[in-house]
Predict the structure.
Amino acid sequence: MKTETLVIEGYASLFGLEDLAGDVVRAGAFTRTLARGGEVRMLLSHVGGRTAGRWTTMREDGRGLFVRGLVTDDTAAGQAALKLIGERAMSGLSIGFIARDWSPRVVRGRELREIELREISLVTSPMLPGAQFAAAGGAAAEKYALRNVRIG
């Protein structure tokens, strides 16, 4: 049986934009996590142990935290993610993190200056509405091509 693999890419976090909880991530917030290296897991909906694939690229740019990864059908979570992506029901990204340096914002939420990134999940409803991914390649890219999703 051939493994189905989908290459996805998008922004897991966008700098300077308020999420639904009022948090705002500042440029440079991921610097230490990225410099440290190590694996940042790709989960399905922030559920530990529900690995949907793996991240191959993570970098900060002027817009936010750009990621590229492989979603595979090697696990039940990967199979579920591919099904939801194919049904156009999932195109969101959400970060699981520990806030290391932050301050409260006047109205609500936090100003996040340093984040220890733990995982990046594929989700149906991201906390930051602009945190989206699109199919970028792989054998399954045409099957899962996400329409009307602007990346970059």
About this structure: The chain is about 15% helix and 45% strand.
